[in-house]
UniProtKB/TrEMBL annotation:
Pfam families: FAD_binding_3 (PF01494). This is FAD-binding domain-containing protein. The chain crosses the membrane at residues 7-26. Residues 8-216, 295-353 form the FAD-binding domain.
Length: 457
């Protein structure tokens, strides 16, 4: 029997993948009185972003939630990756066609807008408040109050910062800790490196401009051979659109300062400069980067620095997802790690005994204990992968070629087995049969007070 949370009120800051996923999970936990509100700084939904891959680690819980078919209809099954040099010669292939048989679910490829819209459909409209830019928060023994730029305040028992790499909640959390005499590590407060970033987008339907290089959906990567080369990937959707992303040190020259990078859209001059600089660079399937720009309505940018923060919580405030462990898109793990955070947190909040600060502290402590080791591991792995794909020295490119050959064989299965052996679900919902031939080796994400057992990583 679930414990009585006495109507705990959760404020989720950020209506991204983590915030919406947590909202969906808490929506199914109302039998113990959990209430939630999502605050989003944007005034409306924005169709920005490129492609996102979700693996069996996350798809299983969406299956349990009953929304997997909806997600499948908004996505494409991806069966592998192809790696090429700057001359577009294939230097490696990584197969993922076996994932559904082995792990129960294939790897689903989404455009970010499509995934966001699919998740939005399962969160009641009245639970999301748009145009709520967080300026600060105040915590005390009675709860926490969030102050927004529009002059409003929102009061709750817990604040969950799911507001990304430049988390306003994290900054407010640090300010509170400093006022309370806490000493933060330099790594916690140092700015993200804005000299490492990607530009990305999703094109309109342009299948009339190209033919599929192969019959099934794959990710096509162009790897750099010099520091000036652009690392590019394109993801082919079944409906004829392309998700694309460009990275590389040479892009940094187009950013004047960090403030512009953080808060402004590209102005027309910068867009024109980028087009001139990159228009002739190769982009597999369509031919050149210029064609990607030509057929992409909204171009956005993201930081690509991996970062693990040691401090995830203080008093009644907790960080999840990119706000506390940022994994670059090249690793394909950012969204998956965020959703794993949500599964763990939802399970623990369901068992929250009361709204008392000491009980909340126990939940946050347990959450960090369960999730931090895996998140740290994901960040570390992402850093190594980023160094590998971005290598441009003779030794670096030789090592990359060697590793890609290994990944084209049995090492690929072993590495995915290690990653997907844990496919967690929610404790408080009816369990679903384990799919796939690989056993689930997850550790429990629970205090052990619920009668249903769920797996975790």
């Amino acid at each position: 029997m679930a414990s009585d949370t006495k109507g705990v009120n959760v404020i989720i800051v950020g209506a991204g993948i983590a915030g919406l996923s947590l909202g969906i999970m808490l929506e199914r936990a109302t039998d113990v009185g959990i209430r939630y509100t999502i605050l989003e700084r944007a005034h409306e939904f924005k169709t920005i972003g490129s492609s996102i891959g979700l693996s069996a680690q996350c798809l299983r819980v969406f299956d349990q939630l009953g929304i997997l078919d909806d997600l499948k209809s908004a996505s494409t099954n991806i069966v592998g990756s192809i790696y090429m040099d700057q001359e577009l010669s294939v230097i490696g292939r990584v197969d993922s066609s076996f994932c559904e048989e082995r792990y129960g679910y294939g790897v689903r490829l989404f455009s970010r807008p499509d995934l966001m819209l699919a998740l939005l459909r399962h969160v009641p409209e009245e639970k999301i408040f748009w145009g709520k830019k967080v300026l600060g928060l105040v915590q005390d023994s009675e709860g926490v109050t969030v102050r927004c730029a529009d002059g409003t305040t929102v009061h709750g028992d817990i604040v969950i910062g799911a507001d990304g790499a430049y988390s306003a909640v994290r900054q407010s959390l640090y300010e509170t800790m400093k006022k309370n005499g806490a000493v933060l590590k330099k790594s916690e407060t140092s700015p993200l490196r804005f000299d490492q970033f990607s530009i990305l987008g999703t094109t309109e339907k342009i299948d009339h401009l190209y033919k599929f290089p192969e019959d099934e959906c794959k990710m096509y990567n162009i790897l750099p051979s010099t520091q000036e080369d652009i690392y590019a990937y394109t993801m082919v959707f079944e409906d004829g659109r392309l998700g694309w992303r460009l990275s590389g040190p040479s892009l940094a020259r187009h950013i004047k300062d960090e403030a512009n990078f953080r808060f402004s859209d590209w102005d027309s001059e910068s867009i024109d400069d980028l087009k001139r600089h990159l228009s002739d660079a190769p982009a597999p399937i369509v031919g050149t980067v210029g064609k990607l720009f030509e057929h992409t309505e909204s171009i956005s940018r993201i930081l690509i620095e991996d970062r693990f923060y040691e401090t995830w919580w203080h008093e009644r405030t907790l960080l999840i997802g990119d706000a506390c462990h940022k994994v670059v898109p090249a690793a394909g793990q950012g969204a998956n790690q965020s959703i794993l955070d949500c599964i763990c947190l939802a399970n623990l909040l369901y068992e929250l005994p009361s709204r008392d600060g000491k009980d909340i502290e126990k939940v946050f402590t347990k959450f960090y204990e369960l999730r931090a080791p895996q998140a740290r591991k994901a960040v570390s792995g992402s850093k190594r992968l980023g160094q590998l794909v971005g290598a441009h020295s003779f030794i670096g490119t030789a090592l990359r070629t060697f590793v890609l050959k290994l990944m084209s064989g049995s090492l690929n299965v072993k590495s995915l087995d290690a990653m997907y052996a844990g496919r967690p679900i929610l404790n408080y919902l009816p369990q679903i049969p384990l799919k796939g031939s690989l056993p689930d080796n997850s550790k429990p994400m629970t205090f052990g007070t619920t009668s249903l057992g769920a797996s975790a990583v």
